Automatic annotation (TrEMBL):
Keywords: DNA-binding. This is TetR/AcrR family transcriptional regulator. It comes from Kineosporia corallincola. It comes from the Bacteria. Gene3D superfamilies: Tetracycline Repressor, domain 2. Residues 34-53 bind DNA. Residues 11-71 form the HTH tetR-type domain.
Amino acid sequence: MARTVDPARHLARRMQIIDAALTRFAEDGFDRATTTAICRAAGIGSGTFFHYFPTKLAVLLAVLDLGTAETGRWFAAQHGRDDAARVITDYVGHHADECADPRVAGFVRAVGAVAGDPDVAAALERDERTVHEGLLPWVRKAVADGQIRADQPSGRLAVWIEVLLDGYLGRIAGQDRFDAVAEKAMLLDAVSRLLKP
């Protein structure tokens, strides 16, 4: 008789492994983070790890996909809001709050080490597309409502918001002295200035 799988328990174990992998990638880098170290951090055996993920790269992709799905859910949860400019500001703040996780800098560097892998490149492209497709309708609405500048196409404004967000993330990954929490207000100010009518 086949063993019954409890979906909630299965998901919880998967998330436990993903969280441990995120920590190990952040602290050790991709190459030095071993499946043994991930298993130790997750409190599991290697058989359990390989039941959920066939390779170390597969769990890194799962971390990326989880972030992309979270971004999609964040934008979906904004449905029905009227103040488009506030949604944009809220997303920028949300992004900054996500970047405040002390593991983010190391994880970004770990991803950079394997960014040339076709699967990683595709995952990063999906994430970029999710952010763009999430922002663009709100930028269009904010322009139409006269809340933000209308002298540039909405798509270009959305891309420049993304440039600021990417630069912020890149600076966090590239410099230990850049404090995501302390610089959040400056990021919000930069986006506000970019969009000012």
